[in-house]
Amino acid sequence: MSQTAAFPVVRPTAVGRDRLLLIGGVLAGPIFAGSAIVQAATRDGFDFRRHPVSVLSTGELGWIQIVTFLVTGVLCALAAQALRRTSGGDGSMWLPRLLALYGLGLVGAAIFSADPADGFPAGTPRGAGEISWHGGLHFLVAAVAFVSLIVATVVAARRAARQGARGRSVYSLVTGVFFAVAWVTLIVRPAPAVMVAFGLAVTAGWLWVSVTFARAASGRAD
Q1: Which of 63, 89, 97, 152 is the most buried (most CB within 10 A)?
Q2: Chain segment 38-59, per-residue pLDDT in tens
Q3: Cα–Cα separations (whole angstroms), residue 160 to 1, 99, 107, 153, 157
């Protein structure tokens, strides 16, 4: 009686256009973080302890953050499509969809810019200020992006756990929980320490996105 040997399925390393798109997704996070740091250091009145990165899209130099939202959002959305094509038939389709939605949320944040707030740009009165229609839509699309990223980490964590990759599962789950807790706390009880924590959560989220796309580019898509 003959038996057929079972061999593990190994995904090939992404090549050509998809590899380039995935590398673009890897670079989106560093581009976003680098742009925010440079702008924070050079734009008068901005303070990470009081202002979210979104308010950098206001004022005469606001176009820099608007372009940053647009470029990183497009890079993320395109990389998500490449992730869908390279993940294979056994790959989770929800992860690419959620990451694409995250990218589209960033594009929406570029289209609907935030309002000046709490002394920024220089000359703006202290306090939250009034919310315009585009400022309200900015909050809405940002919420869509945040929720999509949080759910994506949970989806990735569950899949990694089923594959027996405990460390990767914990990393994804911790990233998502950190982001969710920081975001909700910022909404409920804004404070300088909370604002800084949220900035760190956004950075952690982008790092997770970069790691996810980097794995896919090297043939280790989840």
Answers
A1: 152
A2: 999 999 999 999 999 999 999 9
A3: 36, 17, 29, 10, 5
- pLDDT category, 125, cuts 50, 70, 90? confident
At position 50, the amino acid (one-letter code) is: R
The whole-angstrom separation of Cα 31 and Cα 33 is 6
Distances (CA, A) of 148 to 25, 53, 64, 110: 16, 19, 25, 17
Locate 38 and state its tokens. Answer: 């440079």
The residues near 62 (Cβ < 8 Å, ≥ 6 apart) are 56, 113, 121
Give 125: exposed, middle or buried? Use CB within 10 Å, 0-12, 13-18, 19+.
exposed
Going by pLDDT thresholds of 50, 70 and 90, the confidence category of residue 28 is very high
Report residue 1's pLDDT band, with 50, 70 and 90 as the boundaries: very low
Nearest alpha-carbon partner for 66 in 166, 6, 149, 138: 138
The 3-state DSSP class for residue 191 equals coil
The amino acid at 11: R
Angle CA 170–141–80, to nearest 5: 50
Tokens for 182, please give them: 């920081």
